């Protein structure tokens, strides 16, 4: 499943990231923040508008915001 379909507050592990679906500068930023295969994450907030954009995710002790289009490029499995 992709990150955007993850249940609220449920831990998941990143299985793969489709780096080709992201702009190179966006991919570099996400890697620098620790978004990569093997990382444990959880969706902690979703936007309130129709697209439910952006998503706030917890990765380690950080909270970062992602666009839904980025979350669609991230494959996860329940942790």
Automatic annotation (TrEMBL):
It comes from the Bacteria. Pfam families: FeoA. The keyword Cell membrane does not apply. Keywords: Iron. The keyword S-adenosyl-L-methionine does not apply. GO terms for molecular function: transition metal ion binding. Residues 1-78 form the Ferrous iron transporter FeoA-like domain. This is Ferrous iron transport protein A. It comes from Qipengyuania soli.
């Amino acid at each position: 499943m992709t990150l955007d379909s993850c249940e609220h507050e449920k831990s998941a592990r990143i299985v793969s990231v489709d780096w080709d679906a992201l702009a190179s500068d966006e991919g570099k930023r996400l890697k620098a923040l620790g978004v990569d295969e093997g990382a444990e994450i959880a969706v902690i907030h979703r936007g309130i508008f129709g697209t439910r954009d952006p998503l706030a995710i917890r990765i380690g002790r950080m909270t970062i915001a992602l666009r839904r289009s980025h979350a669609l490029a991230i494959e996860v499995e329940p942790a």
